[in-house]
Specification:
346 residues; mainly beta; six-stranded antiparallel beta sheet; three-stranded antiparallel beta sheet; 9 strands; 13% helix; elongated
Length: 346
């Protein structure tokens, strides 16, 4: 803190303030001011929140597409006891098996209401919702596998103590000169300093130079953003050579609509096309807590996960829909070298 003579006071009038400014201008600091560092322990716990977005588009008789989308939490595919109506894996298998275009072969099993029969039940049971970053909520979501803990670390670092001001000075001799040289870091700590006294009577010069700070706050440790990549493919077994969605034995077009409009899906007369996409994504939940080393006996260890302190929630996954008609290629291609030119004829 500042010396008492330099500490700000509470002035009631403008004249008192101006008088104080004039008096302060005549005062001198006891030296070059700087700040010091102190040791810290930064504990960091990171959770991954995997999510899966299902998107189903139904095109009835070449008409306007009808699309429904839902984003599920990690429990949807990790639930040890899913209900028959809310089984997300069964839903994905059913839609994956019916994916594609079906002309003049629409049976009852190919109707959208049957293909996506469990859509609403799965959505109601496992829709991803924002997580409240409180200790109780984090613990409950980790227990239910909605959050997956991926790291719990502790690192020793430093921070600047702005509550105390230090001064670098040199006492002048009776005969001679005293000099002080200091270089400060951007955070106000002393990067390099020296003090010397030239006593002409004794002919002795005292010099002290030391580096007392490394400069700058220690950068926080960072967790590379987790990235969920890839695609999910689920195949449902079919009995014998014909699947449950095989064409009817009798030819000819049905006189009545093959599928009635139901559960928000369109009516199907003769043909239907299903476009099904699975997009993995999610978030990372990064919690940090910084404690002075002197408050924890100088020991910095990763103990219980951090559920308080500061936190950052970061989305992972690029959110782009893969193009099934595109092939990604990486690498280099070496072109053939040109042949040596033939010598010219004389």
């Amino acid at each position: 803190m500042l010396p008492a003579a330099l500490a700000p006071a509470d002035y009631k009038t403008k004249d008192e303030l101006e008088a104080a400014k004039a008096a302060a201008a005549k005062k001198q600091l006891p030296g070059i001011p700087f700040y010091n560092h102190y040791g810290t322990c930064t504990q960091e716990t990171v959770w991954l929140e995997p999510q899966t977005t299902l998107s189903l588009t139904v095109i009835a008789d070449g008409g306007k597409p009808v699309t429904r989308t839902m984003t599920l939490n990690n429990l949807a595919f990790r639930d040890p006891k899913p209900t028959a109506e809310g089984n997300a894996s069964s839903l994905v298998a059913s839609i994956s098996e019916a994916a594609g275009k079906h002309d003049h072969e629409v049976t009852d099993k190919l109707c959208p209401a049957n293909v996506a029969k469990n859509w609403s039940a799965v959505q109601a049971a496992y829709t991803a919702v924002p997580i409240d970053e409180t200790p109780a909520t984090i613990s409950a979501n980790e227990t239910s596998h909605i959050l997956v803990r991926i790291s719990n670390t502790a690192d020793v670092g430093t921070a600047v103590d702005y509550s105390r001001v230090y001064y670098l000075n040199a006492q002048s001799p009776l005969i001679g000169t005293g000099t002080v040289d200091a270089k400060l870091n951007p955070d106000g700590t002393l990067g390099e300093g020296s003090a010397s006294v030239d006593d002409e009577t004794l002919g002795d010069v005292l010099t002290a130079a030391s580096t007392v700070a490394s400069g700058g706050l220690t950068a926080w440790s960072t967790v590379a953003a987790a990235r969920i990549t890839g695609s999910a493919t689920i195949q449902a077994a079919t009995a014998g050579g014909n699947g449950p969605f095989s064409s009817p034995a009798s030819g000819g077009r049905p006189k009545q609509p093959a599928c009635e409009a139901k559960d928000g899906w369109p009516e199907i007369k003769e043909s239907v096309e299903y476009d099904f996409a699975i997009a993995p994504a999610g978030f990372t939940h990064d919690h940090k807590k910084v404690t002075p080393l002197e408050d924890i006996g100088g020991k910095c260890v990763a103990s219980a996960p951090v559920t308080d302190g500061s936190y950052t929630v970061t989305p992972v996954g690029d959110g782009s829909k893969p193009d099934k008609n595109a092939i990604g290629v990486s690498g280099t291609i070496s072109l053939p070298k040109p042949k040596d030119s033939a010598p010219s004829k004389p």
